[in-house]
Amino acid sequence: MGYISTILGLLCAGLAVLVFLYRHRWCILQERQIEFRRQSDAVTDMLNVVGMKINTALDLDGALDTITEFVVKTTQSEAGAVFLLDNAGKTLQAHAVVGLFPPMRNTPDYVVDDRRRLVEKVKHDHLEMGEGLIGFVAKTGESLLISNALSDPRIPQTPADFLQIQSIMVAPLRTRQRIIGVLALVNKKHGGKFNEQDLYLLEQLSTQASLTVDIVRLYQLQAGQRRIEQELQIAKEFQQMLLPHELPHLEGWDIAAFSKPALEVGGDYYDIFWVEPGALLGITIVDVAGKGIRGALVMAIFRSLLKAEAAGRNSPKEVLTRVNTRILEDTQNKVFVTAIYAILDVRTLTMKVARAGHEPLLICNAKNPEARVCQPGGIAIGLVDSAMFGVLEECEVPLEKGDTIVLYTDGVIEASDREGNVFGAERFSANLQKRLDRSAEELVHAVMDDISVYAATMPQQDDITLIALKYQDTERNP
Fold first, then answer.
1. Domain 245-471 has what CATH class?
2. CA 110 to each of CA 121, 127, 159: distance values in angstroms, whole numbers, following the listed order
3. Which of 29, 148, 257, 418 has its CA 20 to 30 A from that of 442?
4. pTM across the whole model
């Protein structure tokens, strides 16, 4: 009996530990969800504010003022500034200053005493690459957080107490793999100090700020062209910025993606990302209605919301439902987005799929004469409220060796020849089945070649986007 009591005691103790660990992890996940929501809200709000600014004026400094004011307010900072690199990429100059932002060099008393001169001083200074905190971040491309700046020798000295830097954050502005400037914030309001969460939020906002700077600059460079041509080209380049620069590496899988914009921009977007590293892989392909800058901004909003809502969730239906709700809440004008979102569980080799008015997902295998078609029901995002959007369905499919998962946009099957006959879903599926011995990269390019031959000299009317994931390894343990 004593032996049994000891065993039972150990089991109870172990169970108590498991319950404690589970509750602790649940609390951490809840905190992360709240933080993800706050960051997502901030990015969405910023896109709306900046989008309105771009639609009313193509003034870079005006757009930067709007961005800086928004970031300062969102992060509860005392002051902020945006520094941009010159065309030669050698010096930085402040283009927007909000609040009492201190000079980044030692400053005479008479300048500090005159607040108007203070702003002029900050904007007048030209900082070399690598000079001070601003130049350091621009040169290295690495964000910087100093929570206790009073004891840091890198902080410039000032004789005025109201200009003392208590804490500071600096994040690079980067677009198309190139540093274009930095965004700096000083002193948290109410005597607080910046922390890692504040820095992460600043980095997210800096990404959107970088895209805005690039858009406005592209507009200014093409000012001599007709406005519609200008907008389409910028939207294409903006679209390319939003697409992933590299795809995740997954042992046992061969992954490839390809997107070809049309002359008339429709707004295709795709992404492959870890929902849970090493376990759950998110796969999405999207078609945004609307052309030009507005379509590109809607794409950016969708991308931000999807990443935020996907974190920690293993249900594509739940994620798309939440995205639809947020789109309706956060955008002022009607938005129309078709999307398919799948979650691949690499441990169990199963995949969950939800489809919001988009083309179906195909699963091809050489041992089967035809592709499996996965097409759960659902309506496009941005059209109806949560109650009606609730008809969205979710399906779960098992996978096996030799399976090739294919996601695509309607531009693939709607390509037409001279007589107006479309390429079609049947032809597309049959051509896939004939090429399953090829790599994922070869497969997507073969499809593009098929479409080019079929359409001949006919112009491409819509974006064409394709994702292929080939499962090759049954030996790896789930």
1. alpha beta
2. 11, 21, 10
3. 418
4. 0.59
